[in-house]
């Protein structure tokens, strides 16, 4: 079995993958490491490769921000598979507000403490959750490093990748309010999937993963 590395999204940790089944593969959960303020997603991806000893022919799965980092890792190494869930693979798939907030960086004015207490944005951006999922997501957010959160927001907005690496599989939902599926090319669309469909559409995603991992 191939080794699988799981990279979470912004404001989350690898508990985001609790409902997914990777079918007896050797799974490594990637925890965030402290970035340098000058890091880009490219340089940060290189640090993850070294920190976790990610090798060629591995499988890297990324959710949201984790998917963008998975793409950057796949530009460094030839991976067996790159699986993106609720993410984007190039800047061409990014929403229009990326450009807006890149040129008007209001995130720089937000205090670090506020980054870890932004539950009020969850239901708007990520969609409705049941009580258990909502508690878990809020707990992940509260335990996120404010320094990492602020750095990541800037790094995301300045990401400019236009390369689609080989062996990439993209899964997205048609009710994702963060990344509009209409802008995303060559993706598997999950009906009713929101930005956090990794929680409530886990059965559908597991069926897809089973087929993807068998290929």
Strand content: 5-15%
Q: What would the average pLDDT be, to the nearest integer?
A: 87
Uncertain ranges? none
Spatial ordering of strands, largest sheet:
2-1-3-4-5-6
Number of helices: 9
Task: Could you tell me the CATH topology label.
Answer: Rossmann fold
Portion in helices: 25-40%
Look at the structure and name the CATH superfamily. Alpha/Beta hydrolase fold, catalytic domain
CATH class: Alpha Beta
Number of strands: 6
- The secondary-structure element order is EEHEHEHHHHHEEHH
- The assigned CATH architecture is 3-Layer(aba) Sandwich
Task: Quickly give the structural class.
Answer: alpha/beta
Q: What is the count of structural domains?
A: 1
Radius of gyration: 16 Å
Largest sheet: 6 strands, parallel
State the shape: globular
Structure characterization notes:
There is one protein chain. The protein has 215 residues and is of the alpha/beta class. 38% of the residues lie in helices and 13% in strands. The protein has nine helices and six strands. The protein has helices at 41-52, 65-76, 97-103, 112-115, 122-126, 131-142, 146-157, 197-200, 202-214; strands spanning 3-7, 26-29, 59-63, 81-85, 168-173, 188-190. It has a six-stranded parallel beta sheet with strand order 2-1-3-4-5-6, sandwiched between helices. β3 (59-63), α2 and β4 form a beta-alpha-beta unit. The chain is globular. The two termini are 12 Å apart. The model has no long low-confidence stretch (mean pLDDT 87).
